[in-house]
Specification:
Elements lengths: L3 E7 L3 H12 L3 E7 L3 H9 L5 E2 L3 H7 L2 E4 L6 H8 L8 E4 L5 H11 L6 E2 L1 E3 L20 E4 L7 H13 L3 E4 L2 H28 L4 H6 L2 H7 L6 H10 L1 H24 L2 H16 L20 E4 L6 E4 L5 H13 L3 E5 L5 H12 L3 E6 L2 E5 L13 E2 L4 H12 L5 E4 L10 H9 L3 E3 L8 E4 L4 E2 L2 E3 L5 H11 L2 E2 L1 E5 L7 H8 L5 E3 L2 E5 L8 E3 L4 H13 L4 E8 L6 H8 L3 E10 L2 E9 L20 H9 L4 E4 L12 H11 L3 E5 L2 E5 L6 E4 L4 H10 L7 E4 L4 H4 L3 H8 L3 E4 L1
Parallel strand pairs: 1-2, 1-4, 2-3, 4-5, 5-6, 8-9, 11-26, 12-25, 15-16, 19-21, 20-22, 32-33
Antiparallel strand pairs: 7-8, 10-33, 10-34, 12-14, 13-14, 16-18, 17-18, 22-24, 23-24, 26-28, 27-28, 29-31, 30-31
Bound molecules: shikimate-3-phosphate.
Amino acid sequence: MQPLGRLLVIGLGLIGGSVALGLRRRGFATRVVGYDRNAAELEEGLRLGVIDEAVTDLHGAVCAADLVVMAVPVKVMETLMADIAPALSSQTILTDVGSAKGNVVAAAERVFGEVPPNFVPGHPIAGSEKSGVVAANGDLYRRHKVILTPLAQTDRHALKQVTLMWEALEAEVHHMEVHRHDEVLAATSHLPHLLAFSLVDTLANDHENRDIFRYAAGGFRDFTRIAASDPMMWHDIFLANRDATLKVLDEFTAGVATLRSAIERGDGQALLGVFTRAKSAREHFSRILSGTAYSLPMNNTNVKFRALPGGRVNGQIRVPGDKSISHRSIMLGALAEGVTEVEGFLEGEDSLATLQAFRDMGVVIEGPYQGKVTIHGVGMRGLRKPPGPLYVGNSGTAMRLFAGLLAGQAFDSVLTGDESLSKRPMERVAAPLRAMGAQVETGAGGCPPIRITGGAKLAGIDYDMPVASAQVKSCVLLAGLYSDGVTRVTEPAPTRDHTERMLCGFGYPVQREGASASLAGGGRLTATRIDVPADISSATFFMVAAAITPGSDILLQHVGINPTRVGVVNILRAMGADLALENEREVGGEPVADIRVRYAPLKGIEIPEAQVPLAIDEFPALFIAAACAEGRTVLTGAEELRVKESDRIQAMVDGLQALGVDIEGTPDGAVIQGGPIAGGRVNSLGDHRIAMAFAIASLRADEAIEIDDCANVATSFPNFVELARRVGIRINIEE
Ligand code: S3P
């Protein structure tokens, strides 16, 4: 990059000094010039090597400069601009570093008539409680955000130069509207400073409280560190950003008043509600969307797996908790009376989204901590209207089950999800809910968002499901809890029955006869303890890994073997796998076993259609088993795979073909010819199970397999790579 000519920094405080020093060290300009009204500061800047040259003739310096950075307090900005205006040419680029932008832009309008095109308002989000040029730090802006607030008339070249300047300082440049900038900063920076100043001042004024300073420990120090910041600068900021600060201060005051009254009333529940929500929001704060609910946006960084060829699989592991059961434990625990304790909860993004959504509806939930969650149930009618749309990320289960449950509430609600979920069919739940009297709307093409108008009077129905779907069945049964009379659902083939089992566990009677499940509305749920078994769908990747790799022997502990989930066991056995269920037992209404798999050669089979719904999530891994089997495997009756987190038939066909496997897709399945697997590159399409399936394929591949778009593995199996490595699968993560 060609260095810029002369850069002039006006105001050599911490912020301006750090800009000058950082740019000087990095050779961004041929000459870094400094000006400061305070001659001592200026001299110190020169002595410390912050600037190449100190100037006292401001007009002359502005005339000669290519880029001018105004790093003076915001309230001085207008006077400064008026002062330098006669010396500014239309070629000179002007920028500032003020913490409030509306006020600086208004000052520029007053001085220049309109904001000049070569003025780019900016604000680096970095600082320190230290001040003065002695505190200048050339790396102050490294990996920090800088917000530029260009206007319609801002010149593109000027914007580009200012962007290059911050990028040279290794900052991350963002653009924002002026008004939005001031609102955001009022909340994230100005308010906390105000509170810190106020708290320290309040305590320091109270003589009785002087001891507090003597005994002040971590909490006080952490909270009040910023009260040592430059008073004059902050005095300016609050006067400059008056309206936005007042608005957020009022919101904060209301929040404190709520806490005050909770303490006065001895309302521990209200306190715990605020604290648990805040703790979780703080833990995830860098990922929180600017939405109104405590939404938990999913991880969308581009994670790639590189799975190295060969190896074998040995050891004993417990994979994380069952996703379906984890979702349901939160839902029923929230609606129960009393406190439900959950163990083995899946701390994956899908089930965490469900947990978060209930917090948004006012339920106090402690944890998760090492798989333990404590839910303070609010009863069937205790949910509160969430402050915004409920965001359920990648989770079809959350969205469809929520739809049933929310249809029975008095308040309106909106359900949204990530890009993949936003393409999945939701009319399959909206239609039966409407038949029950609910007011439900789906978005374009019957996809999310789902909008539910509360207060509808629901009546039980007798519903014959057109698709074998546990999510639809569960949705209708959950709406049935809020309906008059009996709700009966009949399924075309058996699907997972965790909802029915768990309702019984919470003391809610569910009748089951043949293919039907029914319940009468208007009952109550009573809190209970739930031990979530390990997820057979996650265990599947290791079952298949051991089944296809000579020399393997693995024990998967405490896996749920609900008869509606064991399709993978039946299919692998039919293919000749050496698979044993050991130590079978029942835990909290769900059968559990340790599953041992040793390598044995597999053969291709025609997969019985009756097994398909019982193994619906296991096909990505089973396709890998089929590719490693001798002969042909034929899958039919599995068109549902096309509407999962991705079109799983297409994703597996494309991926396996890219690895040289002979496979052909059909509308409802695939025909796979076993044979060698070459290495290569595949795309998981952001589908967790596709990513994990191709990772285990590497055990039998000739070369490495590179898998794109794997971040969503965290939705169901956050420690997949760690466990895979532990048992001998060599996967590297590349971000
Ligand atoms: C699930 C049901 C299945 C399954 C999903 C979880 C559930 O979906 O694919 O991963 O927890 O009820 P369908 O009901 O759409 O088949």
